[in-house]
User: What shape does this take?
Amino acid sequence: MTADPRTDALRTTTRVNAVPPSGIRRFFDIAATMPEVISLGIGEPDFVTPEPILRAGIASLEAGHTGYTSNSGLIELRVALAAHLERRYGVQYDPETEVLITVGGSEALHLVAEALVEPGDEVLVPEPCFVAYPAVVTFAGGTPVPVVTRFENDFQLDVADLRARITARTRGLLIGYPSNPTGAVMDRPQLEAVADFAAERNLYVVSDEIYDQLVYGQDHTCFAALPGMRERTVLLGGFSKSYAMTGWRIGYACAPAPLVAALRKIHQYIIMSAPTAAQYAALAALTDPAAATAVRSMAAAYDARRRLVVDGFNRIGLPTFEPRGAFYAFPDVRPTGLSSDEFCERLLYEHKVAMVPGEAFGEAGRGFARCSYATSIERLTEALARIGAFVAPL
Ligand code: PMP
Assistant: This one.
């Protein structure tokens, strides 16, 4: 008797089935097959990694550094990172025990969820948010609880909205400012209110600050540096955005030693150590003054593009709040009478511009679309002209 080929031996788990594929990739994959498309869809710098960083990565290979590093990452990199965070934010981490180098901020997010989320736990997640936040909580068996942030309130997180969503099962909060997809930045007093709330309810806070060096016209506030927060916060970051290093895959998690020991344990079994050449490159990103200069010049370029797109969208008739960080604008497309899905689909097929429907970032994003302005002024200008031509008759 031959075996029945229709078997459910490879059935996947409910927690994996519960997570939809990323709504960003869907549009990106379509756009990639259409050469004339201007993609404002993907959250990735258009710059090549700055020269001194690139050279350091290559030199490390030529010097024969082709093996594993310590599980936690190169000690020189952890020392440089701790010094960098202390210099910028005044927050102190012991490089030996409180810093873990990961494969991008993405790995760090998964490790934290794996280490902190017990099945059945609820984690508050302000939306619209980066697509991975609810996904990592669900993969870990927890329940992400969306907390709405609104256009009318500059997408700031309001403690009253957090309070309204808390239950006996709430254990923590996962925030990310500057925000992907809105570009919102939380001002210090508002973050302090969130901190007070976390302390009052004894919640942990996972703070993804991967865009910390892409903030325009103000200083970034590091959540872990707020009074009393270091002991209940996991600070996540990475090199992908500020240093134009998405392909190198280096991120980090900083937290009190017992939690970092748990993260390292998982990391050790699934990764061993982050790519070695990329760690040497990241070390140069933190220590070579020319790299810091390059970061400032890329940030200045994003700032000029930011002003161009925000003015452009508002002039076209798509109300857009002024983002103060990252490289995204989040126009309101409701005045067109189209849903954000219809808007993005027609814009792509009829006018060859790719944007991402806001609901890819949670229900709170419905009616909006995300525009990544990490592309040249020329392409942005052309894209705005196409969007204007699309919107005018609507
Ligand atoms: N956090 C946020 C808010 C992001 O936008 C991204 C990338 N889009 C990441 C984390 C992960 O980046 P990486 O894994 O490249 O460090």
